[in-house]
Amino acid sequence: MSYRDIITIEPDKRGGKPCIRRMRITVYDVLGWLAAGMSHAEILDDFPELTEEDIRACLEFAADREHRLVASVGAA
């Protein structure tokens, strides 16, 4: 499954930030927890509504966004 099937953006939810499956948990929340050293298992224990696939979707979203940013800067 593509991250596009998991990551949702709704203008009236969390200020339009990318969220996971229409929940109020943002991609940035998950990336922050990973950057702080939390393991996938710890995140899933703390947030049982999330799945391993949700975490991977956040990473894929971030990688794709970075790729598009670099490509747009290079084209300018």
From TrEMBL:
Pfam families reported for this sequence: DUF433
Protein name: DUF433 domain-containing protein
SUPFAM superfamilies: Homeodomain-like
Organism: Gloeocapsopsis dulcis AAB1 = 1H9
Residues passing through the membrane, by range: none
